[in-house]
């Protein structure tokens, strides 16, 4: 299995449960006391865009 296959599996799984992106971000924010909230928000936005079929940079 290469990275592309792994990314596609993640995309399929998150496409069926898009709330998991927010849930994961909330978990990280909770564990870091919001210290990296801006970075987590950017990562959540990028993940949502990727799952929706946008380009990943």
UniProtKB/TrEMBL annotation:
It holds the Pfam family MT0933_antitox. InterPro entries: Antitoxin_Rv0909/MT0933. This is Antitoxin. It comes from Tsukamurella paurometabola.
């Amino acid at each position: 299995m290469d990275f592309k296959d792994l990314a596609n599996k993640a995309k399929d799984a998150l496409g069926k449960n898009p709330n998991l992106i927010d849930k994961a971000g909330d978990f990280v924010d909770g564990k870091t006391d919001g210290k990296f909230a801006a970075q987590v928000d950017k990562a959540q936005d990028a993940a949502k865009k990727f799952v929706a079929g946008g380009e990943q940079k």
